[in-house]
Amino acid sequence: xxxxxxxxxxxxxxxxxxxxxxxxxxxxxxxxxxxxxxxxxxxxxxxxxxxxxxxxxxxxxxxxxxxxxxxxxxxxxxxxxxxxxxxxxxxxxxxxxxxxxxxxxxxxxxxxxxxxxxxxxxx
Amino acid sequence: xxxxxxxxxxxxxxxxxxxxxxxxxxxxxxxxxxxxxxxxxxxxxxxxxxxxxxxxxxxxxxxxxxxxxxxxxxxxxxxxxxxxxxxxxxxxxxxxxxxxxxxxxxxxxxxxxxxxxxxxxxxxxxxxxx
Lengths: 123, 130
Hints:
The structure holds 2 protein chains of 2 kinds.
Chain A: H1 16-36, E1 40-43, E2 49-53, E3 59-64, H2 73-102, H3 108-122
Helix pairs in contact in A: 1-2
Chain B: H1 9-36, E1 38-42, E2 48-53, E3 58-63, H2 72-105, H3 114-129
Antiparallel strand pairs in B: 1-2, 2-3
């Protein structure tokens, strides 16, 4: 449930979800430092524009090489946005991989989908 | 919402569910509102402008041709600063919406616990034995 596969011994144990929740919080706190170190990188289609973002998609750095300055300003802006898209995808991939490794049995993608379904079914 | 008297259990439960649904609707409304956030930022000289949505996604970037005169290194720093400013302002607005929704969610009364069940069992035993 919420991204977890229950351990075989937990089925039918009423305290298992609470225990699992506490364990998840502890593991997430331990993973914070590693999450903060994630840097996603991306380039624009011309490869003359590079961007890096953190695990939340916040822009860290934008780098243009000399050839990028030959592009029109509009193309340059589009290149930056495309590079950001690639960098964010890279950071998301790293974040998911890191959480899957740090928290055995936890799938952040499935957890989010289940939460969305639960919210949709309630109101 | 006070814990119910035995005869009001059904009504209490119905009101509890209704308030829970209101809160969930509030959370969904907050999700929509966060999705509609659009925050803008621009450089001091006005030559670089960006916008971000409530999820921190950058939705627009405009670079004036005159901005290219400053060279690639300075322009990179300027563009990064404007993009970050748009994201930070969007995050602030989204946080405000999320905080309001959390405050409303905090208004839900504590769930009934084992003392409620014990009280009911004792009440039933008392009724049966008296």
